[in-house]
Amino acid sequence: MSESFDPLSAVPNNSLLGMSFTPDSATDEPQAEASEVPIPEDIPQIIRVTWELDSQIPPFENRLEGMVFTLHRLAQLPEIAQANLESEELDALRQIIDENPDALVALPFALPDDGDDFLQQLPRLVWSENIEGVAVVYETDAMLTAAEMQAAPHEAEERQHYLETIKQDREKSRFVVAATREESWSVVHPKFESDPEHIEQGPALVLDLLQLITNGRDDNTDDADDTSAAGGDDTAKPAES
């Protein structure tokens, strides 16, 4: 067995399964030196999994692109991955789990390729009992700040012209939002191309994205128009009626 065994490598994809953001005013303060930044001994799992997604997912090639992930407790993985693991690998996975069984892990979830816009599909996600939460990584060059949205004219034609004008030559931003049934966290790179190291973060910085991915959090009813984020399936599919 390889020493670099990654327990998540045995889990196939989907086997588990007009927006704005408000900058954190605290980021207006001078940034502390790296040596001065306190690192909590016990970082909340929702924050940790958001940071991990942000660091592990490379920049997307397209100007408007995103990925969806389902969140699970590490202790859930043996039941899901046992068919894809050798006994020694399964034992190694259990040893990792014993150290932190409640750790959150994010696994990719492919939305149905039905031609809908990425953001339009997010509200259709229905949270099954097999997941702890949902996360999304989204990049766009068309995101506006709350102040810009508020300043937009109300008249439709003037508003459209205003939005097109301020979006010209705008660089891409990255948004990473994760939510469980109890908590949420957001990481934002306002200038992802020119200053990727600068981030804003907080529990609800990207409220619109947060609302989209939690739309089906309390709705476990089947609906032909919904996409079920359920565990144990090889592909994402609409929930059966």
From TrEMBL:
Residues 1-39, 216-241 are annotated as: Disordered. It comes from the Bacteria. Residues 11-25 have a biased composition (Polar residues). This is Uncharacterized protein.
